[in-house]
Amino acid sequence: MSTLTRVPQQPSSATRRRLRGLAWLMVRQHRAALIACAAVTVIGAAWMIHERGTMLDSLHAAGWPGNPASALDGDMLQRLDNSFHGAARYLGFLPVLFGVFVGAPLISSDHEQGTLRLVSTQSVSRMRWLLWKLGFALGLAVVTTAVLGAVFGWWWRGVRPVVSSDWLNGAVFDNTLPVLIALALFTTSLGIAIGAFVRRAVSAMTLTFFSSAAFLLVADHFRNRLATPRRVAFPFDGAHPAVLSGAVEVDQWVGTATGKVYGWGTCVSDAAPDACRARLGIVNSVWDYFGYDQMPTLQWTAASLLLGATALLVALVVWRTRRQAF
Length: 326
Known about the structure:
The protein has eleven helices and four strands, in the order αααααααααβββαβα. The protein is an alpha+beta fold.
């Protein structure tokens, strides 16, 4: 007589790796945002890599960098520049989109749909649920913008001499690392905070859109105040010194040999400009500028300020959510 022994089956690797608990809830609840971000990341990165290769092929075929950009065909340069700035415009929308479609409905939609009451009846603390929600939304913003910002920065560094935007322009400064990540984190946390107070998804999304857009417009005017500009003087109407290569002009003056400066328009409208400048002792052009080597300093300063604001908004969300009733 044979005895059959039942051998317990080992769970498959797929079963062991299956998401459970709050991880499953986050993916299930926000699968549309997860799929959209994955698609945007893959398609956007592939498109920019293709456009970069096409742009470099066209430039190399035209003789660049052996020939300076000024000697290349103007129509070709305009077409390539439009392609570059088209990608920059799309990237510029990302922080606002994260705030509106990921941040704003994150908590407000749970209030409307009653998910919060359901979660509160389970063996899950309110703080643990909130940390999972915040981590999922902010992590999604970081991964997406890190990949796209890195690829865009790689593209820009390869064609920097031939694009029309300087590095302090928002098309470059805001769309490369680390600023793009910090902007997305800020707008996402802003949307979360608005949603936590408003508790209505559509209203929160509308307020987040206008708040984020207004912030980005205002921030443009403070970019050149993130560090102290340098100053250089060189002979009036003379060649620019080498330190101005890749630099961004902040202000322009005219000055004397002793260092006294006047506004750049001094003597321009005078009947005898040369005599006017001689009378005042003006012999130099004076530039206030940011050198290309200052770009990391300005970007990390901007990112630090944005991350500090993000931390404050996250703390506000935690405080608000812990105090309010489900």
